[in-house]
Amino acid sequence: MVKDLTQLTIKDYWKEVKEEDDWWGDLKQEVVRALKGFLETTMEVDIVEQLQAGKYWRTELRRGYRNGYRCRSLLTEFGLVECLKIPRDRDGYYQPAVLARYQRRQREVNHLVRESFLAGVSTRRVREVLAPILGETLSPQTVSRIASSLDNEVRRYHSRLIGDGYCYLFLDGITLKVKTVTGAKKRLVLCAYGITPEGKRELLSFCQATAESEAQWEAFLQNLYRRGLEGNNLSLIVTDGCPGLHRALDMVYPYAKRQRCWAHKLRNVASKLPRRIQESCLKGAKSIYQAQTRQEAKKRFFEWAGSWRTIAPRAVSCLEDDIDELLNFLACPEQHWKKVRTTNVIERAFREVRRRTRPMSSFNNSASVDRIIYGVISHLNKNWKEKPLKEFTHNN
Hints:
Blueprint: H1 10-15, H2 20-51, E1 66-76, E2 79-89, H3 107-118, H4 123-134, H5 140-147, H6 150-159, E3 168-180, E4 183-195, E5 201-209, H7 214-226, E6 236-239, H8 243-252, E7 258-260, H9 262-270, H10 275-289, H11 294-308, H12 313-320, H13 323-326, H14 337-340, H15 344-357, H16 366-384, H17 390-393
Parallel strand pairs: 3-6, 6-7
Antiparallel strand pairs: 1-2, 3-4, 4-5
Helix pairs in contact: 3-4, 4-5, 6-16, 7-8, 9-10, 9-12, 10-11, 11-12, 15-16
């Protein structure tokens, strides 16, 4: 007896279709087949237009003669199109407009490779990940060549005009491992982050360095200055307290007020304390930056210093040496305080760099350092572009 619709079960329906993977596999094959037909038809029309004559036409308008076909494969985001028939002319001038010259991979495929690379996948792992999607295994050398296309974007990023519209400038560095002939070496990357009065934020630039020396920081800052960041509108430059950086700031931005990072300073204070008193001592130190006025903050500092100077003199001296620069943020609008008293914004961006690069263990060379950091920075800047900081757009 034939079942009516009310008697059919889900199981019965499911018997009528293939396994999901088989279905998608068949669909993918159909898409590739249709794409091949479309491309070959388009090229046939194209060569007729270029030669002003079809096969076996007798016409005075003819600009040349055909010479059969050549076959090549084209890797697309839908998969590998095999044995694509491309018309030839006798003079060898014909290049199909529908295909990029000598380019076997469409932009979407290159984009997939680049995004995988920027996500922290090694060149060898990229080909394994993309092989099921593309229907072809890419060589590590091919992946590296595609990733190298980022180099021009990196150069444009490093040379673009920055402008002088920033009220806060944050400076800090990150240490990464780079492979060299003698093994993996630590490499320092200097970084600058800016915030405009409207709350727009941007990682402005980065530069590889061998040390946080005055000379290397000055070269980095001079580059920012030449690209338009003259510092005329800077309310604060927030730093970690590196001596070389501060000497460089004396040369390039001598008139801008500086804010020492509280996070770095408290870590330095903690390193000078026995573990048994760290919690109570640091609790008092943190209360200093929670004051509502500079006068109140100074009062809290003196009270804290008086309580701990005998017990932990080195810790007190560490904070005392920079107390004035630690409190400069209090001259800014109150809603900005939390954002400008530390370099945490850069630290968070660097955490993203480390997350992306963790699978790599270390970079192959300096160029790969630039590519990965640029990839992370451009991604963050793009996300921030339409999302100004709420502390700058609302009155608290």
